[in-house]
Structures are given as C-alpha cells and as structure tokens.
Write a structure and sequence with these properties.
The structure holds 3 protein chains of 3 kinds. Chain A has a single domain, classed as Jelly Rolls (Sandwich), CATH 2.60.120.10. In chain A, about 35% of the residues lie in helices and about 30% in strands. The longest helix of chain A has 27 residues. Chain B is α/β, with parallel strands linked by helices. Chain B has 2 domains: about 100 residues, Beta Barrel (Elongation Factor Tu (Ef-tu), domain 3); about 120 residues, Rossmann fold. Chain B is about 15% helix and about 30% strand. Chain B has 5 helices and 16 strands. In chain B, the strands form 3 sheets. Chain B has a 7-stranded mixed sheet with strand order 11-9-8-7-12-13-16, sandwiched between helices. A 6-stranded antiparallel sheet of chain B has the order 4-3-6-1-2-5. A two-stranded antiparallel ribbon of chain B has the order 14-15. By secondary structure, chain C is an alpha+beta fold. Chain C folds into 2 domains: about 250 residues, no CATH class; about 140 residues, no CATH class. Helix content of chain C is about 30%, strand content about 25%. Chain C is built from 13 helices and 16 strands. In chain C, the strands form 4 sheets. Chain C has an 8-stranded mixed sheet with strand order 3-2-8-9-10-11-1-12, with helices on both faces. A 4-stranded antiparallel sheet of chain C has the order 7-6-14-13, with no helix packed on it. In chain C, strands 4-5 form a two-stranded antiparallel ribbon. In chain C, helix 9 packs across helix 11. The longest helix of chain C has 20 residues. The N and C termini of chain C lie far apart (about 60 Å). Classes of the chains: A alpha+beta, B alpha/beta, C alpha+beta. The interface between B and C is large, with 56 and 60 residues.
Chain lengths: ~150, ~290, ~400
C-alpha cells in the first residue's frame, strides 16, 4: 500500500522537497476521487484545498449564459489544481470539473496556511513552487492569448 | 545529421527544366476541417513520386497560380502523392474546388528533409501546431514503418479549436497504439470537447523522453516553435538535435526568385527543415 | 575631331592576318575599323546590342553600326543625379554606365516560362523554347562582366539550371570595353571588379583617344574572339599603344568617385542587424525599388499566371520583382519585412553579406548605379561607412558563419 507521504514525494510538484516538510504536509493531505462530470469546486465557493492530480483530467471552466461553459484549460496527471486557497478572500474564481474519472491528493488549505505561517522555511519552499506554477500558467495563458494558429488574429 | 542530407534522387527530377509543372491526377479529395482539405494525387504519366519527409511540392491550379505545399503522405507509398492544404488564398481555394479526375500541375519534390532516418536509435519528440502537422505526418509514417528502430516516440499536437484538428481519425488510431505517445490539445474549446485544453508546449515537461538521447522535430507558427524550443531547451535536449521547419514566401522553389530568403538561407533549397542551431540567431532578428 | 566610320575608309582587306591568333593576344584596331568588328559579328548571325543615347541617357539597345554609338558623350553622375555631357573628344565609349545593365537581355524583365492548354479534365504544358538568337553585347564594362558572372552562379551553377538564361548566355558574344573614365558613383576598384576586364569576355577593347589618332587595343578572351580578331584589319600592338591603353585604364582606376572598405564586410553586417543606422537610412528610403531595377546582379523575380478569357489557355510569366516591395515577403497573415528598415537592410545585407554565403561572392560589383538612380541619393558606400564607424558589439547580433553557425 502506497503511503500518502510517498505519493506526495513522487508528485512532480513536490519533487526534491525536504523530507521533514513532506512529513508535516502529509498531515494535511487526503486521497480524493471524482467521477467524470463531477464538479470538484465551483466559482465563488470557499477555496480551502488544492489538488495534486494523480490520474484523470480536470477542466477549469468559466460559464457564460449565452455561450455555456467555456473551458479555459485542462489539467492532467502530474499537474496541480487551485491556488485561490493561498490568498484572501479564499474563493474559487472558476469551476473545476472532472472530465474523466480523476484521482487526486487534496491538501487542506487552512491546515497548510497554519503550517507555513509556523514554519517560514517550509512556507518559502512552498511559495517557490507555487510561484513557478503561476509563472508557467501565465506564460501558457499569454500563448493562448496570442492565438498563434489564426492567420489574421 | 545534416539538414542538407537530402539525397539527389529526392530532388526535383528535372534539374534542367525546374519551372515546368508535371500534370498529376486527383485521385481523392478529403475535407479535413472547415477550411482544410487533403488532395491525393498520382502522376498522370504513371509511376511513383518518391520524396523524403519534410519536403514540399509546388502545386499549380490551372490558370490561377502556384503554391508551395508540404507533402503529407507516406514516404513508403510514393505512388500516392498527398498534400493537405488550407484554403486561404486564390490558388489554395482553386485547389479546393478540384474533384477526382481533375489535374494539378506539380513541381518537386523540393527542399531539405527531417532527419527521420538519422534519428534512429533515439527518442523522438514531434511537436506540431495547426497545419504544421501535415509536414510531420510523413515522419510518423516513417517511424511507424520502422518502429523498432526508435526509442520512445512522442507526438504533441496543438490546434486552435477542436474543429481545426487535422487527421482526427488517424490521431485516434495512433493514440490507441502502445508504442506511440500521442497528446492533442486545443487553445480553446466548449465543454463538449473532452480532450485537453491549453497550449501544446504544456505537454513538453510531462512528455516521456530521454533528453540526452532525443531528437525534436517542430513545425507550426514561428511563435509557437520559439516557445516549444524554449521548453525543449529547458529539458536539456542538445540544441544540435532540435529541428524546425520554416515558412517564407516561395515562388520558384529552386533558389532563382529570391523570395524565400531567411538571412543567408533560401528556405526552398537550404530548408524548409533546418537544424535549430543553424538558424538560432536569425530567429531572433525581427523582419529578417 | 571626327572619325568618319564608313566602309570606304576602312583598312584594305590585305591587312587582315591569316595566322591564327591566341587567346590573350593584343591587337591594334583603328577607330575607323570598329565597324569591321560589327560586320564580322553580323556575318556570323549576331544581333548587335550596345550603348546608344535615348531620352537623355546612355542605354543598351539594338545597334547597327558604330555610328549608333554615343560618340562624344559622357555621363555626369552623383548621388541621385545623372546627366549627359559633351566630351572634348569623340570617344565612342567615353561614359561610365547608364541605368541599363545586361541583365535586361540575359534575365529579361518579363518572360514567359511556359504555356498550358486545357484538354478536357487535364491540361498540356508547353515548355518555352529557349532563345537561340546569337547576340553580341558591345561595350560591356568590367563591373558588368562581374555582374554577369554573379548571375551565372545564381542561374547556372546550382543543382537547378535556368534553361532560358542558359541558352541566352551560351549564345552571347561579349565585347568588353575597359573604362577610360570612371563615374562619380563608381567604386569597382573597392569591389575588385574593375576597371580592367580580366575575364568573361570574347574580346576586350581599350579605347585610346589621342589628338591625332583614335584606336582600340583589342584583347582576345576566347578562341572565337581570337578568330574574329584575326579577321579584322588590325596589326600587332606597339609598345607605345599598349602603354597608352594601360594608362587609360589606370587613370580610370584613379578616378573612382566612391570607395568602400570591404574588410570583413560580411561579419560587419552580420553583427549589425540591430544598428541604429538602419533606422536613419529607412527614414530616407522611399522603397521605390529603383536600386534593384538598375542593379546588374539583383535577380529576384515573381511569377504571374494569366489565362485567356475562356480559361482554356494559361501562361506563366516571370517578372522582375524587388525586395523593396511589401508583398515580396508576404506569407499568409502578413509581410515578413513590413518596414522599409527591414527591406533596406535585407537588400544591403544581401548584396554585401549573405550573398557570400549563398554564392561564394559579393553581390555588389561597385557599378554605382544604385547610388546614381536613387531618387534620394542613398549611397551604399556611405551606409557601410556609417556602420563601420560605430559598429555594435559583436555580442548584440552574432550571426556567424552560414546561417549563423559560429
């Protein structure tokens, strides 16, 4: 049986993370699974977790009444879902729906916020990883905005 | 590996009459997307049309004009000459009106090839954006014919929307193979699309290949290729092993007309496939 | 002084030497006997093309005899300036170069490549027949000889050969004329392209105008040239005549109106793609394409497809094009070189840098036409000088060897 700690350690997001911190984090982690079509969270709901996707595919969506759901991006195995839990007001901005059966590790935001406040060294490790994630997401979004395949954008 | 390794037999076979189109008969027309179609041709005089993956032909629509189109068929089946064409101008639209039995003028094949054979023994990461999948498809065919010669083979393909995806049936077949890692994504989609949404470069860090033993082949809009190269470089793939296919205005395809110059290179004869290292500095000069 | 050039005045036939001449032989030909050369060429079926005064300029056109040559005319040239002026003598080749170059004939401004006729669902393509008309180019300057050699590399020396160019080239007889006077925009000496014709001619003339005498020193460059020279009423050249001819060319070399320092010029330009000078010149450049039209090496073309009204007959025409037009670099979505800066830089960098990588030679022969015929007097030598005086650090744009390998 795989331990949560080992699953965390093997996820790309925590790659190279100090063993001591992983032990601390394990206390905030739990296994979750979502059926295809199930919403993991919805916009405006309180954001109290983030998810390390182990298997499956999750779509981040916005909803426009006249257009229906618009998929902003999808996240696959090895990727991380959600950072609204990090900053006030701790509310999701978009909907997240499992496109297919999805298994993930949920990390409790309130628990993490406390632990990172208590241990700034761990907090720094954590923030480094999240800022890289955000920078990558921003770059990808810019690329999407560039609409590179359009002949006359 | 050299970009200029095209065997002479794969060059336009009329070196003394390079501007003369050869009539070819349309065998089949397939609509790929709302604006893109595939023409399957055969030389009217019979015989085969050998080419190397990555090469292109000049297709002539009677009385309208000529346009450079990469060859997107199977190099192992040279009796079928396949081109996938996006109808954007007068000539490509005229080609789009052709039906089985009609005639197209063909000059070629021209240009350099992907180092498909030379990449044997290594992992292969093929990154295609939009219509850029067409010139890479012959590489996939070649690899599948010689699958045991290669390590991991990854095909990453991005398009604007699900409606813009080429060769969807074939992609589905390829996805079903255990010896091919095929990832498809679109920049935008409605919720009815159950595939991946996001830029194609997102796949690169997660793709399975050994950076020290990988050859990368990239074709798509220049801006997409630049970002893909950055990701590949970040994975520490040797830049000697990165290949790209460039596009410029082409009129003659044989180095006479000057249109396709890219710094010191003529895209038509030194390219379209270049090793990234050979054009690295040029890619960053605006308006060159 | 006047040199009557009619047949009655020609040297008697008896003076024609019967012994075969060798390539490299120098002979003296009296000015009045020049028509004998034209006659010998016409007799062999050559159509004669040479300099003639048309609309205030010396251009190349069909000529019948020496009487059609621009006797007593010279050209005054400066940046954006060209005017004809009377000489103090009646020299036939006493000018530098005009707006035309020989590419007008060898690589014509418009030519049909093939025709096609619809036959039911298919069509038949008819190749354009190569032009086998023998043509003699009279008065080819050394810079233009170099330009022809450069275009030969483009159209003849690669894997693909332009059959129409090839035929014209094979049927051309070249009568070079060494320059006795340089124009105000000439800089062939800088480019190693003149003023003395060194190769690529059948016959090379040096015109000597002395107060009492007008003669040519003629050099045979090929067997055919030697054969024709042997038929002409000349004689062995005397030491004094040879010296006079050499002096003539030497004085032209001293008169170059322009100079270009070509030391490491390829590297200089490769390292200066981002030089602010390109903005300066772009602010003046009208992208009118004059420089590319008058340039004897510019070879770029486009194609046009035409049909008859019924759509049964189609033709493909090749026409001169210019990298100064916005459409030149158009791909779906837009032009690669959308700014005049990018276009001027493309042209000049092609001439002086990328050409070396493409064809192993400079693309500039120093004829000065682009300077003279630029409506705003942009001067390629001045542009090089400006960049050379304040080059960027090699780091800023390190295009190295072929396509940037270093």
């Amino acid at each position: 049986m795989e331990t949560l700690e080992r699953i965390l350690a093997e996820h790309p997001f925590f790659k190279g993370m100090d063993q001591r911190y992983l032990e601390l984090l394990t206390g905030c982690a739990s296994n979750v699974r979502f059926e295809a079509g199930e919403y993991i969270f919805r916009a405006e709901e309180e954001a109290n977790q983030f998810y390390l996707i182990r298997q499956g595919k999750v779509a981040l969506e916005a909803f426009a009444p006249e257009r229906g759901p618009i998929v902003i991006l999808t996240l696959d195995q090895g990727e991380v879902l959600g950072w609204s839990w990090l900053f006030p007001p701790h509310r999701w901005r978009f909907d997240a729906q499992a496109v297919e059966f999805t298994r993930a590790i949920a990390l409790d935001g309130a628990c993490l916020r406390k632990k990172t406040e208590d241990n700034h060294d761990m907090g720094y490790e954590f923030m480094k990883r999240f800022s890289q994630l955000m920078a990558r997401a921003l770059l990808a979004t810019r690329l999407q905005l560039l609409n590179v395949y359009e002949l006359n954008p | 590996m050299s970009t200029n390794s095209t065997p002479e037999t794969m060059m336009g076979r009329e070196p003394s009459a390079p501007m003369l189109p050869r009539p070819c008969t349309v065998q089949r027309v397939r609509q790929e997307t709302y604006d893109t179609f595939t023409l399957e041709l055969a030389p009217a005089a019979g015989g085969a049309f050998p080419f190397a993956p990555g090469q292109f032909n000049m297709l002539y629509a009677f009385g309208v004009g000529e346009v450079a189109i990469s060859i997107s068929g199977d190099p192992g089946r040279p009796e079928k000459l396949v081109h996938t064409i996006r109808a954007v101008g007068a000539t490509t639209k005229a080609l789009g009106h052709l039906r089985r039995g009609d005639t197209v003028g063909v000059r070629g094949p021209f240009g350099s090839a992907w180092p498909a054979a030379a990449a044997a023994g290594r992992d292969l990461i093929i990154i295609a954006g939009g219509i850029g999948l067409a010139p890479l498809r012959p590489v996939v065919y070649h690899v599948l014919r010689n699958r045991q010669k290669y390590g991991n083979v990854v095909l990453l393909y991005g398009a604007r929307t699900p409606a813009d995806l080429l060769y969807t049936k074939e992609l589905e077949q390829w996805r079903g193979r255990f010896d091919l890692d095929v990832q498809v994504t679109v920049d935008r989609a409605s919720a009815s699309w159950h595939g991946t949404v996001g830029v194609v470069t997102n796949f690169i860090p997660r793709a399975r290949f050994d950076p020290s033993e990988t050859v990368a082949m990239i074709c798509g809009p220049e801006i997409m290729m630049r970002f893909a190269i950055q990701e590949i470089e970040e994975m520490e793939v040797n830049t000697d092993n990165i290949y790209v296919s460039m596009e410029r205005n082409m009129k003659c395809a044989v180095g006479f007309c000057g249109h396709c110059q890219f710094g010191p290179a003529f895209i038509c004869k030194d390219g379209p496939v270049f090793s990234y290292n050979s054009i690295k500095t040029l890619l960053n000069i605006r308006g060159i | 002084m006047n040199f009557p050039l009619n047949r009655a005045m020609m040297a008697p036939r008896g003076s024609v030497t019967e012994t075969a001449l060798k390539v490299g032989t120098l002979r003296m030909l009296e000015g009045a006997s020049l028509d004998r050369l034209f006659g010998a060429l016409s007799k062999r079926g050559y159509r004669l093309l040479g300099p003639a005064v048309r609309e205030g300029a010396i251009v190349f056109d069909e000529i019948n005899s020496a009487a059609d040559l621009p006797a007593g005319w010279t050209d005054e040239q400066e940046g954006g300036t060209y005017r004809l002026k009377k000489r103090s003598d009646d020299a036939l080749f006493g000018y530098a170069v005009g707006p035309h170059s020989w590419k007008k004939f060898l690589h014509p401004p418009a030519e049909r490549l093939w025709q096609a006729d619809r036959k039911g669902k298919t069509f038949e393509v008819t190749e354009e027949k190569p032009d086998t008309q023998k043509t003699a180019f009279i008065g080819v300057r050394s810079c233009d000889l170099h330009a022809i050699a450069i275009q030969d590399k483009v159209f003849l020396n690669g894997y693909y050969v332009d059959p129409l160019y090839k035929a014209r080239r094979e049927h051309a007889f070249i009568v070079a004329v060494n320059c006795g006077q340089a124009g105000g925009t000439c800089f062939c000496v800088s480019m190693g392209a003149g003023p003395k014709a060194a190769a690529g001619f059948d016959l090379a003339l040096t015109e000597v105008c002395e107060p009492e005498r007008h003669y040519f020193v003629v050099e045979a460059g090929t067997d055919l040239g030697a054969e024709i020279l042997a038929e002409l009423p000349g004689r062995e050249v005397e030491g004094r005549e040879k010296a006079a001819a050499e002096d003539t060319v030497a004085s032209a070399a001293q008169q170059m109106g322009r100079y270009m320092d070509t030391t490491n010029i390829k590297e200089l330009l490769y390292q200066n793609y981002a030089h602010p000078r390109w903005d300066t010149v772009a602010a003046r450049c009208l992208t009118c394409a004059n420089c590319t039209m008058v340039c004897p090496t510019c070879f770029c073309t486009t194609v046009e497809d035409v049909t008859d009204l019924q759509g049964e007959h189609a033709e493909r025409w090749q026409k001169w094009d210019s990298c100064f037009t916005k459409d030149f670099s158009y791909i779906h979505g837009g032009s690669i070189r959308a700014t005049s800066k990018a276009r001027y830089r493309q042209w000049m960098t092609h001439k002086l840098a990328t050409w070396f990588d493409q064809f192993g030679t400079s693309g500039c022969v120093g004829c000065g036409r682009c300077i003279t015929w630029c409506p705003v007097a942009i001067d390629i030598t001045e542009e090089v000088r400006a960049i050379r005086q304040a080059p960027q650090s090699p780091k800023s744009s390190p295009v190295g060897d072929k396509y940037g390998n270093s």
